[in-house]
Amino acid sequence: MPREGGKIDWSEDRWKDILIGPRKYFWPEETVERLAAWFGLEPGMVAVDVGCGLGYLGYTYWPHFGAGGRYIGVDESPELLDDAARAAEEWADGGEAHFVAGDCYNLPFPDEFADVAMCQTLLMHLEKPERALAEMARVVKPGGLVFCKEPDNVSSTLARSYSSLPDLSIDEELLDVKVTLVSHKGRIELGRGDNAIGARVPAMMKELGLTDVDVRMNDRVFHLEPPYEGPEQQHRIEMMRKFFIDDEHREYRLSRSRENYVAGGGTAEEFDKMVEIYDRIRPLVQEQLEAGEYFSCGGGFVYVAKGRK
Ligand SMILES: C[S@@+](CC[C@H](N)C(=O)[O-])C[C@H]1O[C@@H](n2cnc3c(N)ncnc32)[C@H](O)[C@@H]1O
Question: Residue 52 C-alpha to ligand 1 middle, in angstroms?
Fold first, then answer.
């Protein structure tokens, strides 16, 4: 059942899949190590993960704080929390990893409860991200850490990247840019969240009165190169097939994007011109992948902002 206001139910398979596959190589391992040191994570800390989904931040940073520490994942989806708790039996290896149902606007913790409050790709989906960030700050101790890993998907879409596909015409490129900007505006107007929030989080932290605000970016580059050797390249091919070529939920996703575009002031007809362009490209990608001729290289903008209470 679609939710009121088009709010995503992340426990539906079409969304839950995004919390599994694409997470596998989301952050380079050495970047995670560097970030853990930059955050100052230490064994014994109590960390709250807000909008935890399947517990990604938990299993990613557990080696840095888990010994003698505690992880509590909070999410509004009890279905996801059940899956996350099952997975944690393995990654937390008998340590204190817990999951509780709760709302990010009203976290189920007293003031000054945790050493760390963290989130990843949560704020971008919220109508009132400032309120959620204020809740995260409320539950950390004085001097405690708040960190957020949030993308700027608008800039990622507009950024130039290389691929072996034929270039679009200038008019097609301009339509692509227009669809991206108008849909972004519409998404916010529909209360579906700011897809470019990553670059805004440091200012939000400052506004909230957090100190020592600082920011980094993900240095992951998505490149595909024949013969697609190794697990990471193979994983990328699998994700391209799943989300770009065979996407069984395509109509549903396109209709959401069309709603965003129209809410931002565009017309459905114009949006559908862009869909025609995607439809022209899809079989070309498939042909090149199968012939082992498809190359691509490009980055995405994901910001990591931290601040202290
Ligand atoms: C894109 S997912 C990110 C999950 C996880 N942080 C990750 O990076 O894999 C967003 C998560 O936020 C949760 N969420 C959305 N709105 C929420 C709210 N108001 N309170 C608590 N959780 C919420 C969703 O159920 C979903 O699991």
Answer: 6
